[in-house]
Structures are given as structure tokens and as C-alpha cells.
Amino acid sequence: MDTDPILARLHKLDDYLTKLRARADLSEVEYLVDSDQQDIVERNLQLAIQVCIDVAGYIIAYKGLRSADKLENVFEVLGEVGIISPSLASRMVGMVRFRNILVHNYLDIDSTIVHEHLTHQLDDFEAFARAILEFVEQV
Description:
By secondary structure, the chain is an all-alpha fold. The chain has helices at about 5-20, 30, 35-65, 75-80, 85-105, 110-120, 120-139.
């Protein structure tokens, strides 16, 4: 397996998380009144989630695993075979749904919910990256 595409994406994920962590200490009020910060956070969350989707899809194709019936279910597939934990898979499915709102329902983005993701869900990205690195080391 050529792990370079996975490692490159995990490197980008780290870049996005660095930008997000720099803003994670913003209070909800500070976040809600600063549209520039909102734009930065929304875009970096979207890209971080997309990286995870791409990595999951790459691994599914490499291992010949069952195809996910929906984009969000790529994480369920990884959870079924033990590459990530079922609980992390469930949280990542929620992230894809959140990404879909950022991408497709951008007129209805609730900035309070975005702030919640910023302040309470960044660890899920790191857990995903750790699990993928463990998988890559075993390949």
C-alpha cells in the first residue's frame, strides 16, 4: 500500500487542526460577533472533515472493503473492521452530517453549533489520525 497519500492528508489535517486550536479558546460571544473568525473556523472544519472522508475512502478501496451506501458511512465501514472504534465511527458520521450543512446548507449555518464543534470535538480528529497512523504502521 502506498501510504504517501494518507500521510499527506494527515499532515494537512494537522495544519487545519492547528488553525482551529488557535481559535478554540474564543468564547461563544467573541466567536458570534466576529464573522472573520467564523469563516476561518467553518472552512477549516469543513476541510478537516473532508480529509478524514478521503482517508477513509482510500483505505476502503485499498482493503477492498464494502462500499459505503452514503458518504458518511465510510466511517462505519472502518469501525466494522476495527480500524477505528465503533464510538469514534459514530462521532465521525456526525461530523460528515455537519460538513454537509457547512457545504450545502450554508444559508442556515448556526454559528452556535459551529462554536460547539470548535470547542468540544477537535479531539475526535486527533483520535481518527492516531487510529489511521496505527493502521498505516501495520500495513
